[in-house]
Amino acid sequence: MYRKVPKPSDPQLVNRTQSSAREAWRMFEIIAEFVTATERLQAIHPAVTLFGSARVKPGEPAYRLAEDIARRLSDAGFAVISGGGPGIMEAANKGAFAGSSPSVGLNIHLPHEQHANQYQDISNTFQHFFARKVMFVKLSCAFVMLPGGFGTLDELFEVLTLVQTGKVRKVPLILVGSAHWSGLVDWIRNRLAADGLIGPEDDQLLQVIDDPQAVVDAIFTHYHARGFELSPSEREAEFAL
Predict the structure, then answer these.
(1) Is residue 205 part of a domain?
(2) What three-state secondary structure class fits 78?
(3) Domain that holds residue 110
(4) Are 44 and 104 in contact (CB under 8 A)?
(5) Is 203 helix (H, G, I), strand (E, B) or coil?
(6) What is the pLDDT of residues 27-60, one digit of tens each?
(7) How many domains does the chain have?
């Protein structure tokens, strides 16, 4: 059966060609984003990332708590990383900015909510969520999760999955605010673990800590024996992120 071969002027062929060209250029943009971020941020070490809601207002308890933890981490020698925006992110950068170690913001272009806060020694803005997530994981030796919504939950389970599957080393993953997190932790233990949907030790990957100094102490305790440097096998595994 005769099949018509599209002419170069065929609108469908032109659209497909243009779409392919855009996808090719997009790959170069993604590579450039990784290269730029790596060059700007690779010297930040050791670093702790604080996650939490962009909707928390200055003066609210969670904001003050994030600021306190970040200041203690900064004075203890940790660079503090946040998503660079308002709310908990601003509180984290503000606390670190007042401390002795760098305050780092990994911002992202969003149509709503996100604007860069003013408390950043180092700032890098991303176009792509996944590139930003990779840099959070590559830079951080611990994660502190304060109250937040879908974005915070996404970041929490992203890190949990990477640790569980061995794609990254085991790192302190600390949930701050037992009133906020206790329901989720109970569900993980009483449903996921009890039903065999996660490993018997997987629920131990999370710590719930409310005291700011205890957060800092828990991170130091984790690294007391092994140190902050990646082992050769851990560094090799990180390339597969």
Answers:
(1) yes
(2) coil
(3) 11-238
(4) yes
(5) helix
(6) 888 888 888 888 889 889 999 999 999 999 999 9
(7) 1
Residue type, 187: W
Residue 41 lies in a domain: yes
Give the number of other CB atoms < 10 A from CB of residue 174.
24
Q: Which amino acid is at 32?
A: A
Say which DSSP state 123 is in: E
**Distances from the Cα of 90 to the Cα of 17, 27, 110, angstroms:** 43, 31, 16
Q: What is the pTM of this model?
A: 0.87
The rounded distance, in Å, linking the Cα atoms of 136 and 29 is 19
- Dihedral (C-alpha) 201, 207, 208, 209: value to the nearest 10 degrees? 150
Q: Of 164, 233, 159, 240, whose CA–CA distance to 202 is shortest?
A: 164
Q: What are phi and psi of 212, to 5 degrees?
A: -60, -45
Residue 220 within any structural domain of the chain: yes
ω into 58 cis (within 30 of 0): no
CATH of the domain at 70: 3.40.50.450
On whether residue 210 sits in a domain, the answer given is: yes
> With the C-alpha atoms ordered 234, 159, 84, 209, is the resulting torsion angle positive or negative?
negative
